[in-house]
Amino acid sequence: MKKIKNAKHPIMFLSMMVLVAALFFFPFLFKKTEKEPEAAVPQSQTPIAKACKVTIHVSGSEVPIDLEDYVVGVVAAEMPVSFHEEALKAQAIAARTYVLKSTNYGQTPIEPTVARQVFYDEDIRKENWQNAYEDNESKVRQAVEGTKGEVIEYDGELITAMFHSMSNGMTESSANYSGTELPYLQSVSSTDFQYANNYETTSTFTIEEWNRLLNTSNRLADIHQIRLQKNNTGRVDKVALKGKEWTGRDFRTILGLRSTDFEIDVVDKKIAVTTEGYGHGVGMSQYGADAMADQGSTAHEILQHYYKNTSIEKINCKN
């Protein structure tokens, strides 16, 4: 058989090819790999409570006010700053609840009057408090901050958190006041009359003033014939005199009385109208709140006394 020359050449050729390939791919073995972007971490499906950014539009002002700053202005206007801190906290929660309910979380304006809630801006607070401004402002803000975002709910909904200055020993029910039955605005006991210096006041009228205000033609002797119909909380439902009749609320408004719990008499040839308490009497009594706080009650305990079967919750951001 003829011997084949250069039989090792194919093996050498194959070895060279392997070496070339190794040299070609070698740099890639040590090249730094680009890091792929990390996938977004999936968020929990459980709803997370968040802070509600609510602004309040006060009628007469073009600048919207942060909710908590608005509450500071209401507490400063509606409750004496000398009251106990827990009473101020109760007022803050009631005021916050009231404005959110009545404005649909800031969607509509609110009047800064007694018909709604009185509100004092910073300039008015400085003018009213003068040298005590810093101390008073700090006390009110501390009460508001300590209740930030807290509201009063009944059956999962904001309540109409009505409040008044001082009761006559019993608060008024919503049914007696407006004819509308609300389960959380029932008559409850209130001991504020024991703490208020000005619980009972007397207003006097001449017969001429009386007739002008009531559009009557009474004589002084006729006043003895007046008839007062009172309800179960001691407040006047109806006033009747010589064929004319008024509701207790209308009578109070016409004569500018402090409450609808009143008695009428003739003293020294003038008509004397003596009232007990101050305000419409519905919901939380502010003097009652202070009395309860002095006796050791917390803000939540005060509110749950005056607003029956309610709970204190954080604002629910629905939108």
Automatic annotation (TrEMBL):
Residues in coiled coil: none
One GO process term, biological-process aspect: sporulation resulting in formation of a cellular spore
GO cellular component terms attached to this protein's record: outer membrane-bounded periplasmic space
InterPro entries in UniProt: Bact_Sporulation_Assoc (IPR051922), SpoIID/LytB (IPR013486), SpoIID/LytB_N (IPR013693), Spore_II_D_firmicutes (IPR014225)
Residue intervals of the Sporulation stage II protein D amidase enhancer LytB N-terminal domain: 65-154
Residues annotated as transmembrane: 12-30
Pfam families: SpoIID
This protein's record includes keyword Transmembrane: yes
Keyword terms: Membrane, Transmembrane, Transmembrane helix
Name used for this protein in its record: Stage II sporulation protein D
Source organism (scientific name): Ureibacillus yapensis
Lineage of the organism: Bacteria, Bacillati, Bacillota, Bacilli, Bacillales
